[in-house]
Amino acid sequence: MVLLHRAALAAITGVAGYAAWGGWAVISVANLPDHFEAGSPYRIEYTVRQHGVTLLGGLTGAVLMRAEAAGSVAPLETRAQAGATTGRYVATITVPDADRVTLIITSGFSGGGWGDLTLLSIPVVRAGQARPVPTPAERGRQLFVAKGCGTCHVNGDVPEFASMNRVMGIAPELTGRRLEAAYVRQRLTNPSSLPAIGNSPVRMPDLGLTPAEVEALVGLVSGPSDRAGL
Q1: Biggest distance spanned by C-alpha atoms of the chain
Q2: Is 44 helix (H, G, I), strand (E, B) or coil?
Q3: Which of 7, 117, 139, 207 is deepest in the core (most CB within 10 A)?
Q4: pTM of the predicted model, to two decimals?
Q5: CB under 8 Å to 215, separation ≥6 — which residues?
Q6: Residue 189, exposed/middle/buried by CB under 10 A (0-12, 13-18, 19+)?
Q7: How many Cβ atoms sit within 10 Å of the Cβ of residue 44?
Q8: Cβ atoms within 10 Å, residue 210
């Protein structure tokens, strides 16, 4: 935990000048699946927000798919297209025959890759196989990564984010914190209804989460020793 926190602080120091010029963004996947079906297409949708808030249009991004084991294939890249609203993008991918796939989304926002996002790997099922159902804890971790929460929040309880993605760490740290469920739910569904946190100009955006996504994320950071504090 300490090493992750120090790494995040070092990253903040190293990119402070670059970030001050608007050189970073946050990707949030709108429709993260529990699993993929081998050989089937999937339309993935995501948003790109400068500083995590302002929706960015006119970008040329892509979704890179990396297969693991089974009939493993070379990484496949699909160009993303503009969606129906500003800042929203879509890409239709065809999932190969593999055990799992990892998606890497490049926003096209900066050459330094400060708007890119690598997701946790997603299982692939074949005809006749049972569909995997993630535990609430697994789903919460997947969503923390896929929604881009770790870009702003250091969270040593989800170390995979920092191992695969860049962390700005400009929002309150979540490592080891167990927050009041009702407070987290309000912060996720109606962030503007709560006071701003700290002196950072960056504010929590409304990500348009579904009720199920909200509850999974609430479960990730709330617990028996509930307390509000963010």
Answers
A1: 54
A2: strand
A3: 117
A4: 0.86
A5: 136, 185
A6: middle
A7: 21
A8: 11
| Residues 66 and 101: beta-carbon distance below 8 Å | yes
Residues 6+ apart with CB under 8 A from 159: 4
Identity at 96, one-letter amino acid code: P
Listed residue (177, 110, 117, 194) closest to 148, CA to CA: 117
Query: Two tokens at 134?
Result: 């993630």
Based on C-alpha coordinates, what's the Rg of the chain?
17
- In angstroms, the first-to-last Cα distance of the chain is 19
pLDDT digits (tens, 9 = 90+) for 126-176: 988 999 999 999 999 999 999 999 999 999 999 999 999 999 888 899 999
* Residue 2: Cβ-neighbour burial (10 angstroms; 0-12, 13-18, 19+): exposed
**73 band by pLDDT with thresholds 50, 70 and 90:** low
Beta carbons of 112 and 132 less than 8 angstroms apart? no
Residue among 121, 127, 136 nearest 221 (CA):
136
